[in-house]
Amino acid sequence: MRIACALVFVVACGGGGKKPPPPPMGSAGDSCAGVDASARALYDAEAKATDQLSKNPSFVDDNVAMVVKDCAKDPARVAVCTKAAKSVAQLERDCLVPLDEEGTEGEATP
User: Fold this and answer.
1) What is the C-alpha separation between 92 and 98, in angstroms, rounded?
2) Are 59 and 42 in contact, with CB atoms under 8 Å apart?
3) How far is residue 36's CA from residue 63's CA, in Å, rounded to a whole number?
4) Could you report the per-residue pLDDT of 73-93, keeping only the tens digit for each?
């Protein structure tokens, strides 16, 4: 009787059934698709509004590369946030890895 109860318990609790496969994990490239276009649109608008291209011709390309790099580090957060951002200020404040006072990511080394 105990064996029958144990068998019923194991079967009822799913011990004998197959588990569904986990959902496929996308790569950072999959999650970050379109991030460069979203970032480029924001930085193009910023460059035109502030005349940044006359001061720094690589302004847009450098900043888009920074966004893509941050997206590769944390695609789930950065990709969604970047695509929703309405300005460069919002993008940099809410979506990207903060820069320290030396302009590098993370904490400054002594």
Assistant:
1) 8
2) no
3) 10
4) 999 999 999 999 999 999 999
Distant-in-sequence, close-in-space partners of 70: CB < 8 Å, separation ≥ 6: 78, 95, 96, 97
Q: Which residue has the tokens 């940099």?
A: 92
In this prediction the pTM is 0.66
Q: Tokens at residue 86, please?
A: 């309405």
For the CA atoms of 71, 75, 77, 82, the dihedral, rounded to the nearest 10 degrees, stands at: 50
The single-letter DSSP state of residue 74 is: S
Q: Which two tokens stand for residue 80?
A: 């969604």
Domain ranges of the chain: 26-94
Give the 3-state DSSP-derived string for 18-30, with helices as H, strands as E and coil as C.
Answer: CCCCCCCCCCHHH
Q: How far apart are CA 60 and CA 29, in angstroms?
A: 20
